[in-house]
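Methods: example folding runs. The two proteins below were folded one after another, and each record is reproduced exactly as written to the output file, sequence line first and structure-token line second.
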Amino acid sequence: ADVDTSGIVEMQMGNPDAAVTVIEYASYTCPHCANFHANGFKDLKADFIDDGQINFIYREVFFDRPGLWASMVARCGGQDKFFGISDLLYKGQSEWTRAGEPAQIVDELRKIGRLAGLDKDKLEGCLQDSDNAQALVAWWEKNGEADGVRSTPSFVIDGTTYNNMAYPEMKGIIDEALGS
């Protein structure tokens, strides 16, 4: 059956009207994605996002249930808290992904949500929202298929999909797309 994905919000920063859009496809459980967010993303943000040269869109990839649960926690704070919660998820990835059984992983994700200022009832509502979980998975499948995403992180820069790369290479592609 078709799942309604119309309620899924694109999480973006930068200039939505910029001539160049960079879409990152990443999983909260992917070590390479955590590495990008600890390093290259900070440079990307400083070089292109903060001054509005690009529109940056973050799209979650769901290869496993803990990645989906983490996304549900990140999205629970809305657009305002999404990137801050994402940062906490990546910084703590090695702890929460190895917490043990699924219930223990969810408990660690709850801690991250509470640390980000989400109240207990709101957080539980987000984690228990099975309709949202189904919509997120269908949304990822549709977008991932359309953009040819097979691994994480992947980047769609000015309409072309690239696999994980070092930031200097990414910067060169973005500079070229901007005509710099």
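Second run, written to the same file directly after the first:
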Amino acid sequence: RDPSQGGEAADQVIGMAGLGEALARADYVALTCPLTPETTGLIDAAALARMKPSAFLINCARGKVVDESALIAALRAKQIAGAGIDVTVEEPLAETSPLWGLENALITPHTGGETRSYEANVLDLMMENLGRLRRGETALKNQVV
């Protein structure tokens, strides 16, 4: 949301106003944003049309960040090279979804990024944040707003 923040480990941080230009240059577009009114439908037919035919879309955010019908059309037409899909509009993804039959779509369950220590880490995080709330603190560890 604020391109002046959080870019220490990045080559470049671009705000929403620069998204169209960034899509046109990107080899990989990885979505990790929260679902908000601003991000709902963020990647629609127009956004997909800006991407290079050799580009890949990776969605680890929320299913509704991507217009699923537009993505299916873009993948079918080979408008983009492929997509890695960890989240879908409806979960679990319906057996009848055209996404299952697309060779250029890789579908993982929403738990695709879990590791062996995920549960321990998430429980530690939850306990830390419960302690903060109990103490009346408003800033949470790993808070997404």
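Comment on the second run: The helical segments are 19-25, 45-50, 68-76, 118-134.
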